[in-house]
Amino acid sequence: MTSPASRLIKLTAHPKSAPDLDHPRPDRLVYGNPLRETWSRVEEDLSAGKVYCGVWRCEPGRWRITMGETERELFTVLTGRCRVHDVHGGYEEVGPGEGLYLPPGFAGEFEVLEHLTKTYMISE
After folding, report:
1. Alpha-carbon 88 to chain mean position
2. Which are the contacts of 117, defined by CB distance < 8 A and separation ≥ 6?
3. How far apart are CA 35 and CA 41, in angstroms?
4. Is 45 buried (19+), middle (13-18) or exposed (0-12) by CB count in 10 A?
5. Which has the closest alpha carbon to 83: 58, 105, 104?
6. What is the per-residue pLDDT across 6-64, written as a single tens digit (0 to 9) for each?
């Protein structure tokens, strides 16, 4: 239980608020046109950059991604499965209870294999 003055923010697999909805940009699609739902819970400007975190849900599909030179992401899968492919042909598959770190400058493709829910933290 959180006290009224607490700055702690809980992330849950079943957010109660309405999400922001979008799809991957058409020029980035590899296959599918998955609906992506995002519940942003933290957007902070820090002296060293910005931090974002929340809950993200997505239908199966695949699209190209590129992290900025100072942008990184750490996510943990709550439900479903995904693969993150690098430009050299390697990939990591991630399922429930597993996390993945995407380093600055990462380029590749994000593939949702099964309807996915994850928590994320992005810093830049």
Report:
1. 21
2. 13, 55, 56, 57, 77, 78, 79, 80
3. 19
4. exposed
5. 58
6. 789 899 888 889 999 999 999 999 999 999 999 999 999 988 789 999 999 999 999 99
CA–CA distance, 103 with 87 (Å, rounded to integer): 14
Q: What's the angle, vertex CA 11, arms to CA 28 and CA 16, rounded to 5?
A: 90
Q: Hey, what amino acid is at 89?
A: G
Q: What percent of the chain has pLDDT over 90?
A: 83
Structure tokens given for 113: 């294999």
Strand pairing report for 20-22 and 36-46: antiparallel
Largest CA distance in the chain: 49
For residue 101, what are its two tokens? Answer: 């770190």
CA neighbor of 55 nearest in space, from 2, 124, 116, 3:
116
For the record, the structure tokens of 123 come out as 């810093």
Q: Taking the CA of residue 111 as centre, how many other CA atoms within 13 Å lie in the half-sphere pointing to its CB?
A: 14
- Range 20-123: architecture per CATH: Sandwich (2.60)
Give the residue extent of every domain in the chain: 20-123
